[in-house]
UniProtKB/TrEMBL annotation:
This is chorismate mutase. Keywords: Isomerase. Residues 1-90 form the Chorismate mutase domain. Its EC number is 5.4.99.5. GO terms for molecular function: chorismate mutase activity. It comes from the Bacteria. Signal peptide: none annotated. GO terms for biological process: chorismate metabolic process; salicylic acid biosynthetic process. InterPro entries: Chorismate_II_sf, Chorismate_mutase-related, CM_dom_sf, CM_II_prokaryot. It comes from Rouxiella sp. WC2420.
Amino acid sequence: MEFSSIQDVRNQIDQLDNELVRLIAQRGKCVKAAAAFKTDHADVRAPDRVQQVLDKVCIKAADEGLPEEIIEKVYRTMIGAFIDYELEQHQKLRREQA
């Protein structure tokens, strides 16, 4: 990518942010759906699955030339937020089934 001004850079970042939000929202829908398949909080927290995801995205980040530390921080934060969201969804589903 070549840019001729800071505004060009900012415009590209804005476009990427829009796409990232759209994709994160899709991920959120998947997380909400996953809550229905899990039996307890341990299933929601799924530390082995979290590590699998982190390992995968770190490899992909390295392939893309992004420092693994950045993607790991981003994903740990995102996964933590989604675990909280999924726990809420899981509790809501269990209350509705009771």
